[in-house]
Amino acid sequence: MSLTAIDMITDALRVANIIDENETPSAEQGVAALRSLNQMIAQWIADGVRIPWHVVDELDDELPIDIKDQRAIKYSLARELAGEYGVELLPDAQRIAEQTYTGIVKRYSPQTEMTLDHLPYPSGYPHFYTWPME
Question: Is the pTM of this model over 0.85?
Fold first, then answer.
């Protein structure tokens, strides 16, 4: 299922209660929210969240995201836009934004494991464990 930038922006503005459910964003709101969306994802990438993304230039462009990532981006964008518009995000929306962002981080952050297989160990000691490095 493809999703355009304006679809995502409209959903996020509605989650943040910036526009009503029957309203559409103004041209200015759309352009500003698209800029915020690109900046938000760029910050995620800079922070080590390697989500597949390219800058989206037009509101009618399809977003380069999988359906499993749409909810996290929508609620995170709603949180960003709420701050920009000076509105309070509802607690449920805030919780969803936090939980789904955590899922994005787990999915797209590089995982490094350490093994001690190369070290000498006493006979009978289990040496096949790996430990996540955080």
Answer: no
